[in-house]
Amino acid sequence: MSKYYVVREGKKPGIYNSRDECLPNVSGFSWAKYKSFSNKEDAEIAFKESYKNYYEIKEKKDWRTGNFPFEKNSIAVDAACSWNPGEVEYQWIDLITWKTLFHKKYQLWTNNIWEFLALVHGLQYLQKNNSDQYLYSDSKHAINRVIQKKCKTKLEKAQWTERIFDAINQAEERLRQTKFSTKILKRHTSERGEIPADFGRK
User: For residues 199 and 188, what is the distance between their CA atoms, to the nearest angstrom?
Assistant: First the structure.
């Protein structure tokens, strides 16, 4: 099924007939905002109407309002991928100060791998700093992989993926060799909106 993409914030806002046309206008922009629609009519209406009408959940379900209970002494982690595989990035947001603690980009990866590595990196960071903070992730897949201490990816091993698998192997070994006490919590986006570390590129 073909989709239409409305770019509200990016290199060139507008309506695009495919993901391939949309990506050059949002890829590499951490502040980019875009959304897909199943037909062109809905996309045209969305482009003309207020941005808030289509991102209402993000606008209303803000953790900082205090309306949605959570462990404030925590760090939220999330990843974003422009394609699969494609350019990716992940970041950590401190839920007390609301500051970005860490942000990293890589030219070629997959989102599931990046979610996994973001959590492992977060565990290592908190242990190194003797922190009692929790970690929040909206990826059940990544949380399970950390618990199982195995990334499990369908990405093929090849010369161009060698660096990726080196990072995965190091992360898995770190999980096997280190006993982490940090509690990882699941962020339920359907109930509370996007995780604060989200890049807003849906």
Answer: 16
Q: How do strand 74-81 and strand 134-137 relate by DSSP bridges?
A: parallel
- Answer whether 172's CB lies under 8 Å from 199's CB: no
pLDDT in tens, 95-153: 888 888 888 877 666 778 888 998 999 999 999 999 988 898 888 889 999 999 999 88
Could you tell me if residue 14 is left (phi over 0), alpha (psi between -120 and 50 degrees) or otherwise beta?
A: left
Q: Which residues of 130-152 are buried (b: 16+ CB within 10 A; e: fewer)?
A: eeebbbbbbbeebbebbeeeebe
Model pTM score: 0.61
pLDDT digits (tens, 9 = 90+) for 136-150: 888 888 999 999 999
Rg (CA), the chain: 18
